Amino acid sequence: MEQLQQLMIQNSDIAGFLIIDLTIAVILLCAMRFISGLWAGVNTTHELATKDNFAFGVSLSGSLMALAIVLTGAITGESATSFSEEAIGMSVYGVLGLILIKAGRIIHDKWALPGLDKAAEIEKGNMSVAIVDAAALIATALIIRATLVWAHGLNLDTLIAILSGFAISQTLLVIITRLRERAYRKSNQGACFQDALIQGQIALAIRHAGFLIAMGFTLTAASNFLTYEPTAYISNLLGWLGFGSLMVALFYGLVPVVKKIVLSQINLTEEVDLQHNIGVAALEFVLSIAIALILMALMA
């Protein structure tokens, strides 16, 4: 009988946590839609329902998915000792995640793809740019979630640790994007990767999107090697830099080898870059993420 009573009490607490988390999550998702409209300088209802801007819908979907991923790291669940603690923790980490997602988008726009006016292209209905935008947001969210789970607590030390992991991971994402842009130029007689996206090459966007999301998964594996030390600011920063760089190098080296084996006798450059073969691009998308997931499992 005592066990039954304890179970009922525990379940009532869980139900309370669930209601709190879902309420805050819905509020933040609504806020993300509103902020996405402000960022693009448009009315989201008009873009989606009147103008039928599919590209904007894809971009907004990426934003909402990114926030949902971050919220899974913000939920404190059983670690909270009261409803108020749960509400505060969920709200603070949720808002922080939302801010970091937007910061990641600004970083990606300004340094990873500086030749693109993403907001303008998406407003014009450029699906290629929207796909890359959504993928970059999801990759950023995966990294933010990993830092939220890694750096437990709710204080200034936690914030510094989260920002350290975020900054290093975003830097690596920018570097990888520029390296892939250089590889595209080399394989396509000096053609510009960003110009190709502006021209609406969806196959190219799909392949790059897979690589970005896979990089997000790969960088989260770095947190498995790090022990969170609240006041070890430099150690935390260098740890993310070292293990993050190691995971990126491992992934970057494995991807072309695995693709060459699995997709043997297929000229990937010709099919995707020149013939805009969406089917082959989708296979590359899946293989990139598959490699990242396997690396995550091996390094866990």
Description:
It is a single chain. This protein has 300 residues and is mainly alpha-helical. The protein has one domain. The chain is 81% helix and 0% strand. It contains twelve helices and no strands. It has helices spanning 2-40, 44-50, 54-74, 83-112, 118-123, 127-150, 156-187, 193-198, 202-220, 233-262, 268-274, 278-299. α1 runs antiparallel to α3 (54-74) and α9 packs across α10. The radius of gyration is 21 Å and the shape is globular. The two termini are 40 Å apart. The mean pLDDT is 89.
Task: Annotate the secondary structure layout.
Layout: H1 2-40, H2 44-50, H3 54-74, H4 83-112, H5 118-123, H6 127-150, H7 156-187, H8 193-198, H9 202-220, H10 233-262, H11 268-274, H12 278-299
SSE class: mainly alpha
* Terminal CA distance: 40 Å
State the shape.
globular
Order of helices and strands: HHHHHHHHHHHH
Q: Which regions are unreliable across 5 or more consecutive residues at pLDDT < 50?
A: none
Please report the number of helical segments. 12
Q: Strand-residue fraction?
A: under 5%
Question: Radius of gyration in whole Å, from Cα?
Answer: 21 Å
Q: Helical proportion?
A: over 70%
How would you characterize the largest beta sheet? Answer: none
Mean pLDDT: 89
Strand elements, count: 0
- Give the total of domains: 1
